[in-house]
């Protein structure tokens, strides 16, 4: 039994526990923001990459000692971990029209993989310092963006427009463009036997004068009704 519960095992156990706490701290921050990759995902990535680093460091020492001609390369497995973790990050990225969500979470998953490798290599203080930096970036810079960059972000705006069945939508697009409304998505379906319903998702950085916009749209002869769609 002592051959299993030796100093090396205690070192490995210590590394995995540290990986759980540090990657879990980052995952908890992501989970509190209702992101797709939360506490469990980050812990699994951190512990898994730590385990791969441990395997690379200790898994082949006995074999290399028995065979003098075998070269030992501890960086080989970690290099594949860093490149292979990308598929998990890609799974957290969501694209809806021109809106992209999940990039920060994908980056945190990739960073946690690196954190696990650092812990597995025994660089504990570096791992703790990096975790603090990551948490500061995720928490405080997020608030900074909300305070100072919110005015520069695109605001979503949705309209339902009922128009005659055979009429062109070109005049509608001209009015929307004149009001600095960029088209993000558009759907059209049959509404009644002689009309269509046009659903447009728009984005803008400017304030919207709804009264003026609605007046211009309803002045078009082929428009029957215009209404906003709540998010």
- Order of strands side by side in the largest beta sheet? 4-5-3-6
E-strand count: 6
How many discrete domains? 2
Task: Give the overall pLDDT as a whole number.
Answer: 79
The ordered H/E elements are HHHHHEEHHEHEEHE
Q: Any low-confidence stretches, pLDDT <50, length ≥5?
A: none
The major β-sheet equals: 4 strands, antiparallel
Q: Radius of gyration from the CA trace? A: 27 Å
Distance between the termini: 62 Å
**Distinct helical segment count:** 9
Percent of sequence in beta strands = 15-25%
How is the secondary structure organized here?
Layout: H1 7-32, H2 39-58, H3 61-66, H4 76-84, H5 86-91, E1 94-96, E2 99-101, H6 103-120, H7 124-148, E3 155-164, H8 170-178, E4 182-192, E5 195-204, H9 210-218, E6 223-228
Structure overview:
The protein folds into two domains: 7-150, no CATH class; 155-228, ACT domain (Alpha-Beta Plaits), CATH 3.30.70. Strand 1 and strand 2 form a beta hairpin. It is α+β, with helices and mostly antiparallel strands and 231 residues long. The protein has nine helices and six strands. The model has no long low-confidence stretch (mean pLDDT 79). The chain is elongated. The protein is 55% helix and 19% strand.
Which key phrases capture this entry?
9 helices, MgtC_SapB_SrpB_YhiD_N, Alpha-Beta Plaits, MgtC/SapB/SrpB/YhiD_fam, alpha+beta, 231 residues, 55% helix, membrane, two-stranded antiparallel sheet, elongated, Putative Mg2+ transporter-C (MgtC) family protein, transmembrane
Entry summary:
The protein has 9 helices and 6 strands, in the order αααααββααβαββαβ. With 231 residues, it is an alpha+beta fold.
């Amino acid at each position: 039994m002592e051959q299993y519960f030796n100093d090396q095992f205690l070192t490995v156990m210590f590394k995995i526990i540290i990986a759980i706490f540090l990657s879990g701290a980052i995952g908890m921050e992501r989970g509190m923001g209702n992101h797709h990759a939360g506490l469990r995902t980050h812990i699994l990535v951190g512990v898994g990459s730590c385990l791969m680093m441990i395997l690379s460091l200790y898994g082949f020492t006995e074999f290399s000692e028995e065979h003098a001609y075998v070269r030992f390369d501890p960086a080989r497995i970690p290099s594949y971990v860093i490149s292979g973790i990308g598929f998990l990050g890609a799974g957290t990225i969501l694209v809806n029209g021109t809106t992209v969500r999940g990039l920060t979470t994908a980056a945190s998953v990739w960073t946690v993989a690196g954190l696990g490798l650092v812990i597995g290599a025994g660089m504990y203080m570096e791992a703790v310092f990096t975790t603090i930096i990551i948490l500061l970036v995720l928490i405080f810079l997020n608030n900074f963006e909300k305070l100072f960059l919110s005015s520069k972000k695109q605001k979503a705006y949705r309209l339902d427009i009922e128009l005659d069945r055979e009429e062109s939508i070109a005049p509608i697009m001209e009015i929307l463009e004149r009001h600095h409304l960029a088209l993000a998505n558009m759907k059209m379906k049959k509404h009644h036997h002689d009309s269509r319903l046009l659903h447009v998702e728009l984005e803008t950085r400017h304030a919207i004068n709804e009264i003026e916009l609605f007046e211009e749209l309803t002045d078009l002869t082929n428009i029957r009704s215009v209404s906003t769609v709540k998010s």
